[in-house]
Amino acid sequence: MIPSMPRIQRSGLQSLLREVGPVDRIGLEERVAKYTTRSIKKSSKRFALNLAVSMVDLTTLEGKDTPGKIASLCLKALRPHPDPSIPSTAAVCVYPSLVRHAKKHLAGTSVKIASVATAFPSGQAPLRTRLEEVRAAVADGADEIDMVINRGAFLAGEVDLVRDEIAAVREACSSATLKVILETSELETCDNIRAASFLAMSVLREGDFIKTSTGKTSENATLANNQIMLDAIRDFYLDTGTAISMKPAGGIRTSKQAIQFLIAVKETLGDAWLNNSRYRFGASALLNDLLRQILKETTGRYQAPHTFSEASGSY
Length: 315
Prior knowledge:
Largest sheet: 7 strands, parallel
Distance between the termini: 34 Å
CATH class: Alpha Beta
CATH architecture: Alpha-Beta Barrel
CATH superfamily: Aldolase class I
Structural class: alpha/beta
Number of helices: 12
Order of helices and strands: HHHEHEHEHEHHEHEHEHH
Shape: globular
Low-confidence stretches: 1-10, 311-315
Radius of gyration: 19 Å
């Protein structure tokens, strides 16, 4: 039986691994390989491309970010292309100090304001400092908070500490959506990714997210780590009835990749997760390729890459 929220015991990592069960690595690899063989055409492809645009968290996380750059990013998120059939992106994601500038352009629109917090990307700061950063971002207008877990504590077996910290951040978010970044490349094993997914979900609310990566390490979102987390979301939902959302982040740069990830969602979780309240792409560099492919489907010709404004860094 997959553990529901009340039944996850306060124990060490090895006990948690036993509770949630192992990942079949061979089966996993065979399954995700099949996603790369799927092919969709014409109207189905256009639908998938538009859907992917609507799921992008358009992001800039650079030390040289300015209010002017945030304004440009917000305008692109609201209207990625003059073609009115192309939807807005899901959100704009910025550092906490720039949330108030994003709010000037996005307040009252469908595009959410997201902010990385909790000492992104390392998570290595006192909990008090991390919580203050979350509260400040929410007070300035953030609709969503992307937090990073303490991977060192998790790998050291201090799962109670990690869970309590996620719960504290969840409380600090108040009504804002929380996205919990596992940083899968640092969790070392498939079993650890599954265990960390359950640990986070045990204190999240329906509509909150688990997320693969910060985009700041050598390996980010892959079909494999995405699948491990989708399977965990499915098992958790079947056991508890709580629908947790998913965000792969970093490394997804082409429309072909995005469609493969959407196929994984449909085949694992079904149509109920094929919307931007249940699934997001943390991959701003993806947006221009999606636009290029949409115009190819419309006009029959590829536009030159310089036709589109440069996307900011992905995460």
